[in-house]
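Quick one, tokens below. Sequence please?
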């Protein structure tokens, strides 16, 4: 059996690696003409790193990234509101949370795959069912036969659109800017993720390698496209801590990526016959928990385990049963946090900040315990 994977993002590549380690051959089709190092970082939380430990990739990822032992929510001046100590989970699972350049991670995954199994410049335009499986047609004119398809092609998945059309994308009415800059953080921030919450906007930053900082900024908008102007970012965060202002001013404007924040309204069906969705194609979420890629990585692990044990349809059924409840919970929680983080009313902001301060660390730990725990298969 050959499994065709649509999309060479983090989820698609991790799935291909996991399947090949089970002795299942894959082909990966990616619409981009070349894999470019996008100007963004990624935080591989404990659950993702547990999967990479199983796939033999933990060490190389740790060597190319920066360990994060604390996640903090702060005021705009960086005074703390909430702190999650990750050392407990490091000891429990024997894996660290790693901040890394997304392009570096993608290259590590590509290097792990056997040559000639990733086909670039293959943008899927149609899936047609026939008696023996499916015909995949690509924009470059190529057409291939396929018996089993995994849609790992993101929020705007063509595979989902063709086979599961009754889904809806929800816009959070928030802009997100992402950038990477050469900046020397004060030592105390080296192994922390800090996210400063203000009034209808926030700013997060984390070190991903020696003197390299990945940052992201989000702001609620009212459909005024001028609000997307990257030249306004410094104005939006002009009252924030000098570290944050320094990070923004040190970043080359042309290296900043701008996007609207959306997710996929939770759907209860991820597979149909021999086509199955993974990652954002199945459960795209807002980035408020930093779990988008991590949940796709979990999908890769669970689906490969199921395909190693069962015939295809049963494997897809078991995968959906095992993964859907947790993925949907993360989607819902992430959406809620995005709304809470962007409150505008000063009274509500004060109440929110007080709640963050008063929430016991045991509650924060319990919430992360559920996210970091891999399912038993």
């Amino acid at each position: 059996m050959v499994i065709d994977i649509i999309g060479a993002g983090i989820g698609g590549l991790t799935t291909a690696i996991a399947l090949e380690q089970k002795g299942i051959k894959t082909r990966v089709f990616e619409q981009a003409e070349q894999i470019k190092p996008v100007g963004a970082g990624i935080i591989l939380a404990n659950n993702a790193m547990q999967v990479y430990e199983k796939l033999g990739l933990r060490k190389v990822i740790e060597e190319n990234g920066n360990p994060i032992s604390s996640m903090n929510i702060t005021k705009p001046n960086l005074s703390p509101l909430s702190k999650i100590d990750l050392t407990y989970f490091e000891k429990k699972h024997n894996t660290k949370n790693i901040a890394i350049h997304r392009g570096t991670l993608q290259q590590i995954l590509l290097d792990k795959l056997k040559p000639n199994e990733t086909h670039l410049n293959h943008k899927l335009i149609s899936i047609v069912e026939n008696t023996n499986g499916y015909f995949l047609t690509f924009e470059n004119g190529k057409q291939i036969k396929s018996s089993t398809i995994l849609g790992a092609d993101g929020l705007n998945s063509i595979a989902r659109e063709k086979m599961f059309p009754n889904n809806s994308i929800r816009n959070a009415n928030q802009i997100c800017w992402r950038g990477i800059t050469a900046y020397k953080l004060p030592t105390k921030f080296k192994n922390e993720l800090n996210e400063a919450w203000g009034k209808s906007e926030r700013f997060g930053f984390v070190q991903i390698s020696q003197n390299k900082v990945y940052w992201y900024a989000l702001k609620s908008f009212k459909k005024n496209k001028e609000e997307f102007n990257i030249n306004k970012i410094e104005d939006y965060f002009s009252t924030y801590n000098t570290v944050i202002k320094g990070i923004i001013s040190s970043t080359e404007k042309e290296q900043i990526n701008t996007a609207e924040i959306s997710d996929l309204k939770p759907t209860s069906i991820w597979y149909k016959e021999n086509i199955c969705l993974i990652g954002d194609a199945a459960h795209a979420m807002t980035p408020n928990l930093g779990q988008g890629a991590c949940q796709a990585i979990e999908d890769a692990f669970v689906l490969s385990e199921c395909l190693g044990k069962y015939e295809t349809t049963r494997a897809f059924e078991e995968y959906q049963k095992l993964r859907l409840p947790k993925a949907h919970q993360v989607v819902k929680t992430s959406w809620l946090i995005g709304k809470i983080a962007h409150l505008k009313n000063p009274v509500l902001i004060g109440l929110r900040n007080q709640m963050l301060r008063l929430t016991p660390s045991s509650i924060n730990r319990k919430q992360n315990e559920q996210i970091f725990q891999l399912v038993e298969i």
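The chain has 13 helices and 19 strands. The first helix runs from residue 10 to 20.
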